[in-house]
Amino acid sequence: METMFGIAVDGVAYGMILFIISVGLSVTLGLMRVVNLAHGAFAMVGGYVASYAAQSAGLPYAAALVAAVALTVLATLPLERLLYRRIYGSANELAQVLLTIGLTFVIVAGINYLFGPTLKRIPLPDLLTGTVALGPKAIPTHRAFVIGAGAATLLGLWWLLERTDFGIRLRAAVDDPAMAAALGIRTERLYLATFALGTGLAALGGVLGAELLPLEPYYAIRYIVLFLAVVAVGGAGSIFGSAAAALALGIIDTAGKYLIPNFGEFFFYAALILILFRWPHGFFKGRTA
Amino acid sequence: MTRTLRNALLGAAFGLALAAGPAGAATIKVGVVAPFSGPFGVVGKSFKEAIELYQAEHGKTVGNDTVEFVYKDLDQANPAQSKALSQELIVKERVSVLAGYFFTPDALAVAPLIDEANIPCVIFNAATSAITEKSPRYVRTSFTLWQNTVPLAEYMAKQGIKKAISAVSDYGPGIDGEAAFKATFEKHGGTVVDTIRMPLKSADFAPFMQRIKDSGAEAVYAFLPAGPATLAFAKAFNDTGLRAAGIKFFGPGDLTQEPDLPALGDAALGITTTFNYSRAHDSAMNKAFVAKHKEMFGSYDTVTFTSVGAYDGTHVIYQMIKNAGGRIDGAKAVESVKGMSWESPRGPLTIDPDSRHVTQTIYLRTVEKVDGKLENVEKEAFPKQPDYGYKLAK
Of the candidates B287, B340, B293, B7, which has an alpha carbon nearest to the alpha carbon of residue B141? Predict the structure, then answer.
């Protein structure tokens, strides 16, 4: 019983981390229909900015987090203007893949040149080190913090997309850009804002997830399959779907590794296959945001 | 037609002349295959720096011959590519010696080539015991998992540890480490309560930590490839309270290699490892080695086990050229360095005539802060450790 509880707690913690680093991709891929393979690269840029701000500039963790998100968004906005704007729309999928994977290589090489190939860390404040006890099970404080941040992000996004004017306009613009524009919605601005939201979430995930997925220049390529798996299982564009997918995959992976470690990643990918077999468009395709 | 024929004949004659080589001054080329770009680029960098350092100290000539190093980039474990690059070095560059090789599969892939071309291959790193069994022309100046693990397991048993658990990455070297640990630790009266093989691509180590905790072991023997996996494992070990619970953490020294220590941070403090080289090794020769490195390249941050592997490998290559007096014959060159002994920055070395692997001192080290910098501080030395895994491991 204690073991089951332990697996559940670790699984939820891992799932929430998966959620927070993948949800940005769910926004760009699902809401904007852009296959953004550079998502991992944006997350990495966020992580490196935070690492630099905390270690070399001496900022506290919270300030480094805010700086990372803000600077990553600022740095990627010109990319939206110059590059991404040209490849919107589901007719451009191949162009999207080629452009974003190319962008990823450029960012990987740039980070390697600027920061070197060794691992970088984001030092945690004392408040987030150590463990918190949950009944018989202790989990790292940092993970508890990530679970909280993940839940807050989930609710915030739901509110933004379902309950605000912005959300309604955005969904209209995605469903039928021509009609939305004819009704006076400024779709260009809307897309810019949504792109900023996606990269901001990517940077947030890169910083918060750095304890689990350590920062190094190949981060951008190493973990992209993980992010895509979560979004595919959750159903592109569904925030709750992403959360459900991340939690399910996190719990299955944790249980598999604990009970039969020699099977390795088997359970993760087996679950992926079975879920996509049953729900080819993911858990929540075409329902709520 | 005749012109073409004449050109071809001339070309062939010229080629033969090149192959035979003039008896006097010549250039002897050494081909180095290693990762110079990509995630393991820092390894190639340390190889190259060590070779340049050796040449700065000992000159670029042996007798009348100039020694020239030719580098080929192999950015990840890829046996087919390793073979192609090595073949290119032999056929196009006409190298007399092959060297480098960071990953085991890459080193194994060239066995048929070096036998056919009859040239020696000096391995600077690849650490699976079985490699040198595959060809008599391999010589290795690094270490093996068995070589590091046997003294460690003996030490753990002597510390009074009765129950231990092994947690290794599920690939060649990890399985070597697990086998060496289990055999040695049980021979000395300990019990290995569980052996966990972790997938290479694991991101989350919490489930393995829970398993280690539940196993009731007093100590864990861990081996993972250096880099992100090690960092995440060490962090998980601390964060999930295993360290606080008093479980001791042991492993081969790859875990705490010098370039990764700053990233590991205080999570690394107290990890006890055995290894063939620590940058903090206390000897005049090592101090001079590190100082010279800093003078030539501006910092000694990249000095680690791959540096001495390449430095001593270069020494062996120089010795081969000296013994051969010019033209290198693969089998004879290897024969000529068997039993050779010398003093290296890491301590005394001897090439074992059977395994053609260096017999060396293995050090027990603990990660500590020295002048604000994390270093592997040596606590004990186990002299003359051979490769225990030769003709034993799979």
Answer: B340
